[in-house]
Amino acid sequence: MIRLALQSGKGACHIKPFPVFKQCKICLNTYAVGGWSAADQSKDRQWYKFSSLNMRHSNSNYMNTRDINRHWKRIVNTMNDGLMLIDLQGIIIMVNQAFERLSGYGSDEVVGRPCTMLHCDSCELTRHESDHPHWCSLFSGNAQLQCRCHIMRKNGTYLHVLKNANLLTDENNQPMGAVETLTDISEIDRLGNAISQLNKCLNDAGGFQGIIGQSPSMKKVFEVIEKAAYSDAPVMISGESGVGKELAAQAIHRLGPRKNGPFIQFNCGALNASLLESELFGHIKGAFTGAYRHRQGRFEAAHGGDIFLDEIGDIPLSTQIKLLRVLESKQFERVGDHQPVQVDVRIITATHRNLAEMIEQKLFRDDLFFRINVIPIHLPGLRERKSDIPLLIDHFLRKRRQRAGQCIKGLTRPAMKALMRYGWPGNVRELKSALEYAFVIADSDMITPDHLPSYISGAHPFVNHDKTGHTHPGPEEKRTLIQALKTCRGNQSQAARQLGINRVTVWNRIKKYDIDIKKYKL
Protein backbone atom coordinates (compact mmCIF):
# COMPACT_ATOMS: atom_id res chain seq x y z
CA MET A 1 0.00 0.00 0.00
CA ILE A 2 1.24 3.46 -0.91
CA ARG A 3 0.77 6.23 1.59
CA LEU A 4 2.29 9.68 1.11
CA ALA A 5 2.71 12.09 3.99
CA LEU A 6 3.23 15.76 3.67
CA GLN A 7 5.55 17.12 6.31
CA SER A 8 5.18 20.53 7.85
CA GLY A 9 8.01 22.95 8.32
CA LYS A 10 8.71 21.54 11.84
CA GLY A 11 8.97 17.97 10.62
CA ALA A 12 5.63 16.88 12.04
CA CYS A 13 3.80 14.33 9.98
CA HIS A 14 0.57 15.70 8.60
CA ILE A 15 -2.10 13.71 6.71
CA LYS A 16 -3.93 15.39 3.83
CA PRO A 17 -7.56 16.11 4.73
CA PHE A 18 -8.88 14.38 1.57
CA PRO A 19 -8.00 11.25 -0.41
CA VAL A 20 -5.78 11.50 -3.47
CA PHE A 21 -6.40 9.00 -6.31
CA LYS A 22 -4.26 7.65 -9.11
CA GLN A 23 -5.16 5.32 -11.97
CA CYS A 24 -2.92 2.52 -13.15
CA LYS A 25 -2.29 2.91 -16.89
CA ILE A 26 -2.04 -0.86 -17.40
CA CYS A 27 -4.96 -2.36 -15.50
CA LEU A 28 -7.05 0.88 -15.25
CA ASN A 29 -7.78 0.16 -11.54
CA THR A 30 -7.87 3.12 -9.15
CA TYR A 31 -5.92 3.21 -5.91
CA ALA A 32 -5.23 5.82 -3.21
CA VAL A 33 -2.02 7.70 -2.65
CA GLY A 34 -3.45 10.01 0.05
CA GLY A 35 -5.55 9.48 3.16
CA TRP A 36 -8.27 10.87 5.37
CA SER A 37 -7.71 13.40 8.11
CA ALA A 38 -6.39 12.11 11.41
CA ALA A 39 -9.75 12.94 13.00
CA ASP A 40 -11.48 10.14 11.10
CA GLN A 41 -9.37 7.08 11.84
CA SER A 42 -12.19 4.59 11.29
CA LYS A 43 -12.77 5.81 7.73
CA ASP A 44 -9.03 5.88 7.27
CA ARG A 45 -8.78 2.16 8.06
CA GLN A 46 -11.75 1.29 5.83
CA TRP A 47 -10.32 3.24 2.87
CA TYR A 48 -6.88 1.66 3.08
CA LYS A 49 -8.47 -1.74 3.40
CA PHE A 50 -10.33 -1.08 0.12
CA SER A 51 -7.18 0.32 -1.53
CA SER A 52 -5.12 -2.67 -0.48
CA LEU A 53 -7.76 -5.06 -1.86
CA ASN A 54 -7.82 -3.18 -5.15
CA MET A 55 -4.06 -3.32 -5.41
CA ARG A 56 -4.08 -7.06 -4.69
CA HIS A 57 -6.63 -7.56 -7.49
CA SER A 58 -4.39 -5.63 -9.86
CA ASN A 59 -1.32 -7.70 -9.07
CA SER A 60 -2.96 -11.13 -8.74
CA ASN A 61 -4.59 -13.58 -11.20
CA TYR A 62 -7.75 -11.52 -11.63
CA MET A 63 -8.55 -10.70 -15.31
CA ASN A 64 -7.84 -7.13 -16.25
CA THR A 65 -8.38 -5.11 -19.42
CA ARG A 66 -5.08 -6.23 -20.92
CA ASP A 67 -6.12 -9.86 -20.46
CA ILE A 68 -9.50 -9.18 -22.01
CA ASN A 69 -7.87 -7.56 -25.05
CA ARG A 70 -5.55 -10.54 -25.42
CA HIS A 71 -8.44 -13.06 -25.37
CA TRP A 72 -11.18 -11.09 -27.17
CA LYS A 73 -11.15 -13.39 -30.21
CA ARG A 74 -11.71 -16.42 -28.03
CA ILE A 75 -14.47 -14.56 -26.22
CA VAL A 76 -16.41 -13.67 -29.39
CA ASN A 77 -15.91 -17.18 -30.78
CA THR A 78 -17.81 -18.62 -27.81
CA MET A 79 -20.92 -16.72 -28.92
CA ASN A 80 -23.72 -18.75 -30.43
CA ASP A 81 -24.77 -15.76 -32.55
CA GLY A 82 -22.90 -14.80 -35.68
CA LEU A 83 -20.85 -11.61 -35.31
CA MET A 84 -19.61 -9.41 -38.15
CA LEU A 85 -17.53 -6.22 -37.98
CA ILE A 86 -17.65 -3.87 -40.99
CA ASP A 87 -16.03 -0.54 -41.84
CA LEU A 88 -17.59 2.65 -43.19
CA GLN A 89 -17.61 1.29 -46.76
CA GLY A 90 -19.37 -1.91 -45.71
CA ILE A 91 -16.24 -4.05 -46.06
CA ILE A 92 -16.18 -7.01 -43.68
CA ILE A 93 -13.25 -6.74 -41.29
CA MET A 94 -13.86 -9.68 -38.98
CA VAL A 95 -16.33 -12.51 -38.34
CA ASN A 96 -16.56 -15.07 -35.58
CA GLN A 97 -16.87 -18.85 -35.82
CA ALA A 98 -20.65 -18.78 -35.31
CA PHE A 99 -20.94 -16.59 -38.42
CA GLU A 100 -18.94 -19.16 -40.36
CA ARG A 101 -21.26 -21.92 -39.15
CA LEU A 102 -24.45 -20.01 -40.00
CA SER A 103 -23.38 -18.71 -43.40
CA GLY A 104 -21.21 -21.58 -44.60
CA TYR A 105 -18.43 -19.13 -45.51
CA GLY A 106 -14.96 -19.29 -43.99
CA SER A 107 -13.48 -16.09 -42.58
CA ASP A 108 -10.94 -15.97 -45.42
CA GLU A 109 -13.84 -15.99 -47.90
CA VAL A 110 -15.65 -12.97 -46.47
CA VAL A 111 -13.00 -10.72 -44.89
CA GLY A 112 -12.23 -7.93 -47.32
CA ARG A 113 -15.46 -8.37 -49.26
CA PRO A 114 -18.58 -6.14 -49.03
CA CYS A 115 -21.31 -7.25 -46.65
CA THR A 116 -23.78 -7.08 -49.57
CA MET A 117 -22.49 -10.52 -50.56
CA LEU A 118 -25.00 -11.91 -48.02
CA HIS A 119 -27.93 -10.48 -50.04
CA CYS A 120 -29.77 -9.45 -46.88
CA ASP A 121 -33.25 -8.46 -48.05
CA SER A 122 -33.84 -5.88 -45.31
CA CYS A 123 -30.52 -4.13 -46.00
CA GLU A 124 -31.21 -3.97 -49.71
CA LEU A 125 -34.67 -2.57 -49.03
CA THR A 126 -33.17 0.09 -46.74
CA ARG A 127 -30.69 1.19 -49.38
CA HIS A 128 -33.40 1.26 -52.03
CA GLU A 129 -35.79 3.43 -50.06
CA SER A 130 -33.35 5.77 -48.35
CA ASP A 131 -32.63 9.27 -49.67
CA HIS A 132 -29.57 9.94 -47.53
CA PRO A 133 -26.05 9.87 -49.05
CA HIS A 134 -24.92 6.92 -46.94
CA TRP A 135 -25.10 3.49 -48.48
CA CYS A 136 -26.73 2.14 -45.31
CA SER A 137 -29.14 3.93 -42.99
CA LEU A 138 -27.16 2.67 -39.99
CA PHE A 139 -24.42 5.18 -40.82
CA SER A 140 -26.83 8.09 -41.25
CA GLY A 141 -27.49 8.47 -37.54
CA ASN A 142 -29.38 5.31 -36.59
CA ALA A 143 -27.20 4.13 -33.75
CA GLN A 144 -28.97 0.77 -33.54
CA LEU A 145 -31.09 -1.32 -35.87
CA GLN A 146 -32.98 -4.54 -35.22
CA CYS A 147 -34.94 -6.50 -37.81
CA ARG A 148 -35.85 -9.94 -39.10
CA CYS A 149 -34.37 -10.73 -42.46
CA HIS A 150 -33.07 -13.46 -44.75
CA ILE A 151 -29.41 -13.86 -45.65
CA MET A 152 -28.08 -16.10 -48.39
CA ARG A 153 -25.80 -18.93 -47.33
CA LYS A 154 -22.84 -20.10 -49.37
CA ASN A 155 -24.91 -23.01 -50.75
CA GLY A 156 -27.55 -20.59 -52.08
CA THR A 157 -30.23 -21.28 -49.48
CA TYR A 158 -31.71 -18.55 -47.31
CA LEU A 159 -31.43 -18.40 -43.53
CA HIS A 160 -34.03 -16.55 -41.45
CA VAL A 161 -32.18 -14.47 -38.84
CA LEU A 162 -32.75 -11.74 -36.30
CA LYS A 163 -30.17 -9.04 -37.00
CA ASN A 164 -28.94 -6.50 -34.43
CA ALA A 165 -26.64 -3.75 -35.70
CA ASN A 166 -24.85 -1.09 -33.67
CA LEU A 167 -22.85 1.88 -34.89
CA LEU A 168 -19.26 2.25 -33.64
CA THR A 169 -18.03 5.85 -33.18
CA ASP A 170 -14.75 7.52 -32.23
CA GLU A 171 -14.12 9.99 -29.42
CA ASN A 172 -15.61 12.76 -31.58
CA ASN A 173 -18.79 10.74 -32.10
CA GLN A 174 -17.94 10.18 -35.77
CA PRO A 175 -18.82 6.78 -37.31
CA MET A 176 -15.95 4.32 -37.55
CA GLY A 177 -17.82 1.17 -38.54
CA ALA A 178 -20.53 -1.14 -37.30
CA VAL A 179 -20.94 -4.43 -35.53
CA GLU A 180 -23.77 -6.83 -36.41
CA THR A 181 -24.99 -9.99 -34.73
CA LEU A 182 -27.07 -12.62 -36.51
CA THR A 183 -29.35 -14.93 -34.51
CA ASP A 184 -30.66 -18.02 -36.28
CA ILE A 185 -34.45 -18.07 -35.79
CA SER A 186 -35.21 -20.86 -38.25
CA GLU A 187 -35.63 -23.22 -35.31
CA ILE A 188 -38.18 -20.83 -33.80
CA ASP A 189 -40.07 -20.92 -37.10
CA ARG A 190 -39.96 -24.72 -37.08
CA LEU A 191 -41.21 -24.91 -33.51
CA GLY A 192 -44.00 -22.47 -34.34
CA ASN A 193 -45.13 -24.73 -37.17
CA ALA A 194 -44.85 -27.76 -34.90
CA ILE A 195 -47.00 -26.09 -32.24
CA SER A 196 -49.63 -25.29 -34.87
CA GLN A 197 -49.64 -28.91 -35.98
CA LEU A 198 -49.90 -30.13 -32.39
CA ASN A 199 -52.82 -27.80 -31.75
CA LYS A 200 -54.58 -29.26 -34.75
CA CYS A 201 -53.83 -32.76 -33.46
CA LEU A 202 -55.27 -31.89 -30.05
CA ASN A 203 -58.37 -30.47 -31.68
CA ASP A 204 -58.77 -33.60 -33.77
CA ALA A 205 -57.76 -36.06 -31.04
CA GLY A 206 -59.12 -39.55 -31.32
CA GLY A 207 -59.01 -42.40 -33.83
CA PHE A 208 -55.86 -43.08 -35.81
CA GLN A 209 -53.73 -39.91 -35.77
CA GLY A 210 -56.93 -37.86 -35.71
CA ILE A 211 -58.66 -39.92 -38.44
CA ILE A 212 -61.91 -41.45 -37.16
CA GLY A 213 -62.93 -44.83 -38.51
CA GLN A 214 -63.13 -48.53 -37.69
CA SER A 215 -64.56 -49.88 -40.93
CA PRO A 216 -62.52 -52.55 -42.76
CA SER A 217 -61.69 -50.15 -45.58
CA MET A 218 -60.28 -47.57 -43.16
CA LYS A 219 -58.26 -50.17 -41.25
CA LYS A 220 -56.55 -51.08 -44.51
CA VAL A 221 -55.82 -47.39 -45.11
CA PHE A 222 -54.26 -47.09 -41.65
CA GLU A 223 -51.97 -50.04 -42.35
CA VAL A 224 -50.76 -48.51 -45.61
CA ILE A 225 -50.17 -45.13 -43.92
CA GLU A 226 -48.01 -46.72 -41.23
CA LYS A 227 -45.89 -48.55 -43.79
CA ALA A 228 -45.61 -45.56 -46.10
CA ALA A 229 -44.48 -43.33 -43.23
CA TYR A 230 -41.20 -45.25 -42.84
CA SER A 231 -40.39 -44.94 -46.54
CA ASP A 232 -38.82 -41.89 -48.16
CA ALA A 233 -40.63 -42.50 -51.46
CA PRO A 234 -43.26 -40.07 -52.77
CA VAL A 235 -46.83 -40.73 -51.63
CA MET A 236 -49.98 -39.83 -53.56
CA ILE A 237 -53.28 -39.71 -51.66
CA SER A 238 -56.40 -39.87 -53.78
CA GLY A 239 -60.02 -39.45 -52.86
CA GLU A 240 -62.94 -37.10 -53.13
CA SER A 241 -63.03 -33.71 -51.46
CA GLY A 242 -63.65 -33.90 -47.74
CA VAL A 243 -62.42 -37.47 -47.11
CA GLY A 244 -59.46 -36.36 -44.97
CA LYS A 245 -56.47 -36.33 -47.34
CA GLU A 246 -54.78 -33.61 -45.28
CA LEU A 247 -55.12 -35.67 -42.09
CA ALA A 248 -53.60 -38.68 -43.87
CA ALA A 249 -50.63 -36.57 -45.00
CA GLN A 250 -50.09 -35.26 -41.47
CA ALA A 251 -50.23 -38.82 -40.12
CA ILE A 252 -47.52 -39.90 -42.58
CA HIS A 253 -45.33 -37.03 -41.42
CA ARG A 254 -45.84 -37.65 -37.69
CA LEU A 255 -45.18 -41.38 -37.97
CA GLY A 256 -42.12 -41.11 -40.21
CA PRO A 257 -38.42 -40.41 -39.59
CA ARG A 258 -38.89 -36.79 -40.74
CA LYS A 259 -41.32 -35.99 -37.91
CA ASN A 260 -38.83 -33.57 -36.32
CA GLY A 261 -38.51 -31.67 -39.59
CA PRO A 262 -40.98 -29.18 -41.04
CA PHE A 263 -44.33 -30.15 -42.52
CA ILE A 264 -45.29 -27.65 -45.22
CA GLN A 265 -48.66 -27.92 -46.91
CA PHE A 266 -49.89 -26.04 -49.94
CA ASN A 267 -53.05 -26.10 -52.05
CA CYS A 268 -51.97 -26.01 -55.68
CA GLY A 269 -55.41 -24.91 -56.81
CA ALA A 270 -55.44 -21.80 -54.63
CA LEU A 271 -53.24 -19.64 -56.91
CA ASN A 272 -53.00 -18.89 -60.59
CA ALA A 273 -50.08 -20.07 -62.70
CA SER A 274 -48.10 -16.82 -62.44
CA LEU A 275 -48.03 -16.88 -58.64
CA LEU A 276 -47.82 -20.64 -58.15
CA GLU A 277 -44.20 -20.98 -59.25
CA SER A 278 -43.05 -18.17 -56.95
CA GLU A 279 -44.95 -19.69 -54.02
CA LEU A 280 -43.43 -23.13 -54.52
CA PHE A 281 -39.84 -22.23 -55.40
CA GLY A 282 -39.46 -18.70 -54.05
CA HIS A 283 -38.07 -15.64 -55.81
CA ILE A 284 -35.30 -13.11 -55.47
CA LYS A 285 -35.73 -9.38 -55.14
CA GLY A 286 -36.55 -7.75 -58.47
CA ALA A 287 -37.63 -10.99 -60.14
CA PHE A 288 -40.91 -9.33 -61.13
CA THR A 289 -42.94 -6.23 -60.38
CA GLY A 290 -43.73 -6.16 -56.67
CA ALA A 291 -40.88 -8.49 -55.65
CA TYR A 292 -39.36 -6.04 -53.16
CA ARG A 293 -37.78 -8.72 -50.98
CA HIS A 294 -36.40 -12.21 -51.26
CA ARG A 295 -39.06 -14.83 -50.65
CA GLN A 296 -38.42 -18.35 -49.47
CA GLY A 297 -40.48 -20.92 -51.37
CA ARG A 298 -42.40 -23.81 -49.87
CA PHE A 299 -39.84 -26.38 -51.02
CA GLU A 300 -36.98 -24.54 -49.36
CA ALA A 301 -39.02 -24.13 -46.17
CA ALA A 302 -39.66 -27.90 -46.15
CA HIS A 303 -35.95 -28.80 -46.26
CA GLY A 304 -35.36 -31.81 -44.02
CA GLY A 305 -39.07 -32.61 -43.74
CA ASP A 306 -42.19 -33.26 -45.82
CA ILE A 307 -44.11 -31.09 -48.25
CA PHE A 308 -47.78 -31.80 -48.90
CA LEU A 309 -49.09 -30.59 -52.27
CA ASP A 310 -52.86 -30.77 -52.23
CA GLU A 311 -54.85 -30.71 -55.50
CA ILE A 312 -51.77 -31.65 -57.52
CA GLY A 313 -53.99 -32.09 -60.57
CA ASP A 314 -54.58 -28.32 -60.72
CA ILE A 315 -50.98 -27.27 -61.43
CA PRO A 316 -50.23 -26.09 -64.99
CA LEU A 317 -47.91 -28.00 -67.33
CA SER A 318 -45.16 -25.38 -67.03
CA THR A 319 -44.94 -25.89 -63.27
CA GLN A 320 -45.15 -29.67 -63.67
CA ILE A 321 -41.81 -29.59 -65.51
CA LYS A 322 -40.11 -27.81 -62.59
CA LEU A 323 -41.72 -30.16 -60.10
CA LEU A 324 -40.42 -33.14 -62.06
CA ARG A 325 -36.90 -31.72 -61.84
CA VAL A 326 -37.16 -31.43 -58.06
CA LEU A 327 -38.20 -35.08 -57.84
CA GLU A 328 -35.35 -36.23 -60.08
CA SER A 329 -32.43 -34.04 -58.96
CA LYS A 330 -33.54 -32.69 -55.55
CA GLN A 331 -32.80 -29.15 -56.69
CA PHE A 332 -34.58 -26.17 -58.21
CA GLU A 333 -34.05 -22.52 -59.13
CA ARG A 334 -35.84 -19.55 -57.63
CA VAL A 335 -37.83 -17.28 -59.90
CA GLY A 336 -35.42 -14.70 -61.32
CA ASP A 337 -32.32 -16.63 -60.26
CA HIS A 338 -30.05 -19.10 -62.04
CA GLN A 339 -28.30 -20.60 -59.03
CA PRO A 340 -29.62 -24.09 -58.18
CA VAL A 341 -30.79 -24.75 -54.63
CA GLN A 342 -30.36 -28.23 -53.18
CA VAL A 343 -33.18 -29.55 -50.96
CA ASP A 344 -33.90 -32.74 -49.05
CA VAL A 345 -37.68 -33.10 -49.11
CA ARG A 346 -40.14 -35.98 -49.25
CA ILE A 347 -43.15 -35.11 -51.41
CA ILE A 348 -46.70 -36.08 -50.49
CA THR A 349 -49.37 -35.21 -53.04
CA ALA A 350 -53.15 -35.45 -53.06
CA THR A 351 -55.88 -35.03 -55.62
CA HIS A 352 -59.59 -35.62 -56.14
CA ARG A 353 -59.16 -35.69 -59.91
CA ASN A 354 -58.74 -38.70 -62.20
CA LEU A 355 -55.14 -38.17 -63.27
CA ALA A 356 -55.28 -41.08 -65.74
CA GLU A 357 -57.95 -39.26 -67.73
CA MET A 358 -55.99 -36.00 -67.50
CA ILE A 359 -52.94 -37.76 -68.95
CA GLU A 360 -55.02 -38.96 -71.90
CA GLN A 361 -56.24 -35.39 -72.40
CA LYS A 362 -52.63 -34.09 -72.27
CA LEU A 363 -53.42 -32.05 -69.16
CA PHE A 364 -51.01 -33.91 -66.88
CA ARG A 365 -47.54 -35.27 -67.61
CA ASP A 366 -47.30 -39.05 -67.44
CA ASP A 367 -43.64 -38.96 -66.31
CA LEU A 368 -44.60 -36.76 -63.37
CA PHE A 369 -47.47 -39.09 -62.50
CA PHE A 370 -45.16 -42.09 -62.37
CA ARG A 371 -42.78 -40.20 -60.06
CA ILE A 372 -45.39 -39.07 -57.54
CA ASN A 373 -47.52 -42.24 -57.61
CA VAL A 374 -44.88 -44.51 -56.04
CA ILE A 375 -47.01 -45.25 -52.95
CA PRO A 376 -50.69 -44.68 -53.78
CA ILE A 377 -53.21 -44.38 -50.94
CA HIS A 378 -56.92 -44.15 -51.73
CA LEU A 379 -59.29 -42.81 -49.09
CA PRO A 380 -62.86 -44.09 -49.51
CA GLY A 381 -65.82 -41.73 -49.56
CA LEU A 382 -68.09 -41.54 -46.52
CA ARG A 383 -70.92 -43.33 -48.33
CA GLU A 384 -68.54 -46.29 -48.78
CA ARG A 385 -68.01 -46.59 -45.01
CA LYS A 386 -71.32 -45.59 -43.49
CA SER A 387 -70.63 -47.74 -40.44
CA ASP A 388 -68.20 -44.97 -39.37
CA ILE A 389 -70.90 -42.26 -39.38
CA PRO A 390 -72.01 -42.90 -35.74
CA LEU A 391 -68.35 -42.74 -34.63
CA LEU A 392 -67.86 -39.46 -36.46
CA ILE A 393 -71.05 -38.01 -34.97
CA ASP A 394 -69.95 -38.93 -31.44
CA HIS A 395 -66.56 -37.37 -32.13
CA PHE A 396 -68.02 -34.08 -33.39
CA LEU A 397 -70.57 -33.96 -30.56
CA ARG A 398 -67.82 -34.39 -27.97
CA LYS A 399 -65.67 -31.66 -29.54
CA ARG A 400 -68.65 -29.31 -29.68
CA ARG A 401 -69.46 -29.83 -26.02
CA GLN A 402 -65.83 -29.21 -25.05
CA ARG A 403 -65.51 -26.10 -27.17
CA ALA A 404 -68.85 -24.37 -26.67
CA GLY A 405 -70.21 -26.02 -23.53
CA GLN A 406 -73.43 -26.77 -25.40
CA CYS A 407 -75.38 -29.61 -23.82
CA ILE A 408 -76.34 -31.69 -26.88
CA LYS A 409 -76.77 -35.29 -25.76
CA GLY A 410 -77.16 -36.83 -29.19
CA LEU A 411 -79.46 -37.44 -32.14
CA THR A 412 -82.95 -38.87 -32.26
CA ARG A 413 -83.45 -42.10 -34.20
CA PRO A 414 -85.13 -40.35 -37.18
CA ALA A 415 -82.25 -37.85 -37.37
CA MET A 416 -79.68 -40.67 -37.35
CA LYS A 417 -81.61 -42.48 -40.10
CA ALA A 418 -81.60 -39.32 -42.20
CA LEU A 419 -77.83 -39.00 -41.83
CA MET A 420 -77.30 -42.67 -42.65
CA ARG A 421 -79.54 -42.41 -45.71
CA TYR A 422 -77.87 -39.34 -47.22
CA GLY A 423 -75.23 -39.83 -49.94
CA TRP A 424 -72.61 -37.37 -48.55
CA PRO A 425 -70.98 -36.01 -51.73
CA GLY A 426 -68.98 -33.68 -49.46
CA ASN A 427 -67.93 -36.63 -47.27
CA VAL A 428 -66.71 -36.07 -43.70
CA ARG A 429 -66.35 -32.32 -44.14
CA GLU A 430 -69.97 -32.06 -45.19
CA LEU A 431 -71.07 -34.19 -42.22
CA LYS A 432 -69.21 -31.87 -39.86
CA SER A 433 -70.84 -28.79 -41.44
CA ALA A 434 -74.31 -30.37 -41.22
CA LEU A 435 -73.81 -31.05 -37.51
CA GLU A 436 -72.53 -27.52 -36.94
CA TYR A 437 -75.73 -26.28 -38.56
CA ALA A 438 -77.79 -28.54 -36.28
CA PHE A 439 -75.93 -27.30 -33.18
CA VAL A 440 -76.92 -23.74 -34.00
CA ILE A 441 -80.54 -24.52 -34.86
CA ALA A 442 -81.26 -27.06 -32.10
CA ASP A 443 -83.41 -25.72 -29.26
CA SER A 444 -83.30 -28.89 -27.18
CA ASP A 445 -80.72 -31.39 -25.98
CA MET A 446 -81.47 -33.79 -28.86
CA ILE A 447 -80.99 -33.15 -32.58
CA THR A 448 -84.08 -33.99 -34.64
CA PRO A 449 -84.57 -34.11 -38.44
CA ASP A 450 -85.97 -30.57 -38.26
CA HIS A 451 -82.59 -29.38 -37.03
CA LEU A 452 -80.75 -30.80 -40.07
CA PRO A 453 -80.35 -29.00 -43.39
CA SER A 454 -83.39 -29.56 -45.59
CA TYR A 455 -81.44 -31.25 -48.37
CA ILE A 456 -80.34 -33.92 -45.84
CA SER A 457 -83.56 -34.48 -43.92
CA GLY A 458 -85.46 -35.02 -47.18
CA ALA A 459 -82.68 -36.83 -49.02
CA HIS A 460 -83.00 -40.13 -50.80
CA PRO A 461 -80.31 -42.72 -51.32
CA PHE A 462 -78.56 -42.64 -54.64
CA VAL A 463 -76.27 -45.11 -56.36
CA ASN A 464 -74.65 -43.96 -59.57
CA HIS A 465 -72.04 -46.21 -61.15
CA ASP A 466 -69.62 -45.33 -63.88
CA LYS A 467 -68.30 -47.75 -66.48
CA THR A 468 -65.58 -48.96 -64.09
CA GLY A 469 -68.15 -49.92 -61.44
CA HIS A 470 -67.11 -47.20 -58.97
CA THR A 471 -69.74 -44.99 -57.38
CA HIS A 472 -69.57 -41.25 -57.89
CA PRO A 473 -71.79 -38.32 -56.94
CA GLY A 474 -72.98 -37.46 -60.45
CA PRO A 475 -76.35 -35.66 -60.48
CA GLU A 476 -76.58 -35.72 -56.67
CA GLU A 477 -73.42 -33.65 -56.41
CA LYS A 478 -74.84 -31.10 -58.84
CA ARG A 479 -78.19 -31.04 -57.06
CA THR A 480 -76.69 -30.40 -53.63
CA LEU A 481 -74.43 -27.68 -55.06
CA ILE A 482 -77.38 -25.91 -56.71
CA GLN A 483 -79.37 -26.18 -53.48
CA ALA A 484 -76.50 -24.66 -51.51
CA LEU A 485 -76.11 -21.82 -54.04
CA LYS A 486 -79.82 -21.09 -53.80
CA THR A 487 -79.68 -21.02 -50.01
CA CYS A 488 -76.60 -18.78 -50.01
CA ARG A 489 -77.94 -16.57 -52.86
CA GLY A 490 -75.02 -17.31 -55.13
CA ASN A 491 -72.29 -16.68 -52.54
CA GLN A 492 -69.68 -19.33 -53.35
CA SER A 493 -67.78 -18.95 -50.07
CA GLN A 494 -70.92 -19.49 -47.98
CA ALA A 495 -71.96 -22.41 -50.19
CA ALA A 496 -68.53 -23.99 -49.66
CA ARG A 497 -68.87 -23.67 -45.88
CA GLN A 498 -72.36 -25.15 -45.99
CA LEU A 499 -71.20 -28.13 -48.07
CA GLY A 500 -68.02 -28.57 -46.04
CA ILE A 501 -65.70 -28.11 -49.02
CA ASN A 502 -63.31 -25.36 -50.04
CA ARG A 503 -64.20 -22.51 -52.36
CA VAL A 504 -61.94 -23.76 -55.15
CA THR A 505 -63.88 -27.06 -55.23
CA VAL A 506 -67.16 -25.14 -55.52
CA TRP A 507 -65.74 -23.14 -58.41
CA ASN A 508 -64.50 -26.32 -60.13
CA ARG A 509 -67.92 -27.99 -59.79
CA ILE A 510 -69.66 -24.89 -61.15
CA LYS A 511 -67.46 -25.18 -64.24
CA LYS A 512 -67.88 -28.95 -64.38
CA TYR A 513 -71.68 -28.83 -64.42
CA ASP A 514 -71.86 -25.55 -66.39
CA ILE A 515 -73.95 -23.85 -63.69
CA ASP A 516 -75.00 -20.27 -64.34
CA ILE A 517 -74.15 -18.61 -61.04
CA LYS A 518 -76.01 -15.40 -62.01
CA LYS A 519 -79.36 -17.17 -61.58
CA TYR A 520 -78.85 -17.50 -57.85
CA LYS A 521 -77.43 -14.06 -57.06
CA LEU A 522 -79.55 -11.18 -55.82
Attribute tags:
4 domains, 522 residues, five-stranded parallel β-sheet, disordered N terminus, alpha/beta, Rossmann fold, 21 helices, Beta-Lactamase, single chain
Task: Write up what this structure looks like.
The chain has 522 residues and is of the alpha/beta class. The protein is elongated and about 90 Å long. It has four domains: 6-64, no CATH class; 72-184, PAS domain (Beta-Lactamase, 2-Layer Sandwich), CATH 3.30.450.20; 188-378, 3-Layer(aba) Sandwich (Rossmann fold); 388-520, Orthogonal Bundle (Helicase, Ruva Protein, domain 3). Helices cover 40% and strands 16% of the residues. The chain has helices at residues 41-59, 65-70, 72-77, 97-103, 107-110, 121-129, 186-203, 216-229, 245-255, 273-281, 298-301, 317-329, 355-360, 366-372, 389-404, 413-421, 427-441, 454-457, 475-487, 492-499, 503-512, and strands spanning 6-7, 13-14, 21-23, 30-32, 82-87, 92-95, 144-152, 158-169, 175-184, 235-238, 263-267, 306-310, 331-333, 340-342, 346-351, 375-378, 410-411, 446-447. The chain has 21 helices and 18 strands.
